[in-house]
TrEMBL record, chains A, B:
The keyword Transmembrane helix does not apply. SUPFAM superfamilies: Aldolase. Belongs to the HMG-CoA lyase family. This is Hydroxymethylglutaryl-CoA lyase. It comes from Muricoccus pecuniae. Pfam families: HMGL-like (PF00682).
Amino acid sequence: MTGTAIISDVAPRDGLQSIGPFVPTATKIALVRAIHAAGIRRMEIGSFVSPRAVPQMADTAEVLRAALELPGLECTVLVPNRRGFELARDSGAQRLGLFMSVTESHNKANLNRTREESFADLSAIAREATAAGLLVRFNLSCVFHCPFEGVVPDAEALDLIERVTAIDPSMEIALADTTGNAAPDQVRRICEQALRSWGERFAFHGHDTYGMGLANVAAAWDAGIRIFDSASGGLGGCPFAPGATGNVATEDVAWLFRRMGVETGIDWNRLLEAADLAAQVPGGTPGGRLRGVPAVRRAA
Amino acid sequence: MTGTAIISDVAPRDGLQSIGPFVPTATKIALVRAIHAAGIRRMEIGSFVSPRAVPQMADTAEVLRAALELPGLECTVLVPNRRGFELARDSGAQRLGLFMSVTESHNKANLNRTREESFADLSAIAREATAAGLLVRFNLSCVFHCPFEGVVPDAEALDLIERVTAIDPSMEIALADTTGNAAPDQVRRICEQALRSWGERFAFHGHDTYGMGLANVAAAWDAGIRIFDSASGGLGGCPFAPGATGNVATEDVAWLFRRMGVETGIDWNRLLEAADLAAQVPGGTPGGRLRGVPAVRRAA
């Protein structure tokens, strides 16, 4: 059961995005540095979206410049469309994050377009980005459960996953439990089938809204997934998915892996510092379970 | 992955035991009735211990009398020793709960005696109780992790499990994650080995201290365990295991099983009522994740 897991901390983007009051750029940079100091070598730094639509991400270029100075860190920036891609292409970010939903109604609510429109645009961007030497992460939201449509049928998820795998053989694909209401048996089943059919290129992105976050991470690990998204301090949530508060906390995931003997390269003391910093961001809705456990503090 | 899980709600005993202020007998009985009304048909009602040692359980006989009036409910009472057994034998409780620890230091801290002393006494009581027509549950604490000794070696746990299986072939045995720091791969491994070696007679008793409660329940289910302890409202904890606050919440476990298509016979609306009632007990330390999720309230 041992091995190595790669944790991509999404607190700077997914964690901060839905916070109302603007988080000062210096605070964002301090958070990025703290997460890096904890030994995490992948991070979702921000997104090149319209500052009118998501004002919290208006300073992504500046945060990214600071992040790119950190040794060994792979920076991901999210882009919703061609305009974002053009901004991101020359930003220095090593990886582009694209995203769309498995379900039509969430795609429309979140992106204001049909899945076919999203897929066509993102496929073209993914190919161009890859040709330009960028790494690409294709994020699929609502793979397991949708706030509007409920439980997603396996076939609906696997159909879209298959189409996405065909865009480029090297492209990483994240299977996201956007609402936190995936069941561990479902996560295991879909992840196993994806890995068996299309190889080791999948990541799992989980939320902890229903307390099943770690159960789903454990199920994804068992299925063979080795790349996990999580947010220090359990920050996050999707403003367009009602009730979908809180990415699974990096410190919770790190503890799970520590107890399972899985390597993450994380410095536990410093991760708790990063988690505390994330949890203290004004306006944030921190989650996670580990920060408050006395025995964990002592174990550091 | 479907099937049926039996949930034994331990809120009336494990959940209330460590609460300082005495919980009025009427409140305890109301809680038992609410949990029963939610469709739960096994419950840990109280314990026949010295009222000096555990004053909160002084009214177990009275609570039990009320519980025994509820149709279809199997009542468990915990007994620490022969004196408790004698009280319990004629109390009307269908099942006796015995308990000791896998680790020497926790057994001494919790029971003030060596494992060998506990094992000898409890073996004799278990045989007498079985001969008297009572059902017996033998609870093993710290099967996976001990607050004093850390991670428990598999062999140490399995050795004691094997000795306990030999007491009586029909006796139910609970594998308890007393500190909540079991890892899901460890739970799966031990449960699988126990079931493979000694048949379908095991229950899993989990805590949620480190947020791994549901991950461990899911792992135990995958391994083949079909009987689970949990506490409505996530009440509970062991006063002799530092940091071990909070049984895994019945409502969280019920949601996990609901999403996995596992039958529990639970009425979701009424379970939320029971959980709210448990969480409101003055002096209690409620846990669990589900009570506060708006989508869960709507799903009821």
